[in-house]
Every structure is written in structure tokens, then in C-alpha cells.
Amino acid sequence: MSESVLQIRIRRLLEFFDGKPPDSKKHATAIASVCGEDLGCGLLRHYFEAHRASVEVRPEPCTTGKRKGPRLDRWVRVQGAAELAAPDVLFQVEVKMWSAHAIGGKHLSLGATSEEVADYKRQTWQKEWHDVEGIKKAPLAKVLHRMTPPPGLGPVPIEPLACLWTALHPDGGAACLFSRPVPERQRRALDTDFQRVWFFSMSAYLRSLSQRTIRVYMPDTARRIGWLSQLLGAPGR
Q: What is the reported pLDDT for 181?
């Protein structure tokens, strides 16, 4: 377990993905490929565990069970979370590391005022969501396609969750986890029976913490770092 846990430097992570420092150009996509899915689900796990829930990030693939069709990033099971409607929920999770580095992405300073952060969250939300159409971007809207759950779990309710790096909220609020009803038009267009979709903002969660570092469960990333350390030496050596 300890080998799968990495220490996250909160300020540096926010500076990199929200601040887009000059020497980070062309590196964000590669870094997100190495750690993005683990980071998103690891922070989601950290959030729920901080709220005294039991969380399991499952290893099974999150697919429809067919060879072709949409597939998502992770299954995350949460038990005992007071803010969820059910005592046991299986989230089908899609992670997107959209940040200041993305095309059209905007810088969000660590020193931004609460009003500036709230305005940023509202603007970002409007890019991702339409009250009538629902989720605007197809790469994220696929989270609404129902996946086939891992075998042997029993009748655990499944809910879709979009795990995004960027800070966003419909009214600029502080909540980093929230849900929205899926509009009827989007349910018909995607032929889905999901009534609501959850959103989790990594940036908003990290900004809510007072610690300098936190320990996050990131098993795939830890293994990749291990391979890189075996394959490549330190710079200049």
C-alpha cells in the first residue's frame, strides 16, 4: 500500500496546472498522461476519506462490455458518504486534466481573490455545461453512457462522475463535489437512463486544503516513476 502512495506538493501542482509557468510549455500533456487518471481518482478518494467514507478505486476496466464503444477511466466505490443519497455508490469515472495548458485555457493564480476564483469557476462551468443540452463536449459526455459493472458486487447503484482538473462551479461556490440533473434532451440524445451526473474539481479541492502536502493513492503513477528511475539516470549523470 505505502509503495502506491505518493506525496503531493499542493502549491507546486496548482502552480503547474493552473499557473502555467513559462518553462512548463509542452510538458503538461506528457505529465498528465503519466499521472492524470491516478491523480484524479486519488484526490477523489482523498476527499471522501477526509469525509469519513470508505473508498475503493477498483482495477477492473470501465467499459460497456463490448469490444467497441465508449470506455471510462475508473470504477470508484464509496461507502458511508453522508452527502450521497445512498450508503453505497459505485461511480463510473471519467478524468480530464483540462487546465491552463489546454487550448483556450485560462491562468488562475494562487494569489487570486475569492471573487476572482468564483468568477473563474462560473466561466469554466459555462464552457462545460448547458442547462438544456447538458455536458457540451463529447469526450466528457461519454461519462453518461452506462458501463457494465465489475462482477460480484451485487445491486450497488451506479452513478456517473466527471473528474476534472479545472476549477468550476455553476454559481462560483466553494464546493468541489456537486451534482446536476441530466437534461431530458441529453438523456434522449445519448439514450441514457442516468438522472444526474456528478462533478469533482481537483483544483478546487486542492485550493480548499491548508496543508502543504498530502499523501495520495496513485499506484500506476508510482510504478511508472519506478520504471523511469530504472531506465533513465538523473540529468547530467
A: 98
> What is the percentage of the chain residues whose pLDDT exceeds 90?
82
Nearest to 76 by CA among 94, 55, 97: 55
Q: What is the mean pLDDT of residues 209-213?
A: 96
- Amino acid present at 33: S
Convert the pLDDT of each residue in 51-107 to its tens digit: 999 999 999 999 998 888 899 999 999 999 988 878 999 999 999 999 988 878 889
Determine the Cα–Cα distance for residues 52 and 113; give it in Å rounded to an integer.
30
pTM of the shown model: 0.94
Three-state DSSP class for residue 6: strand
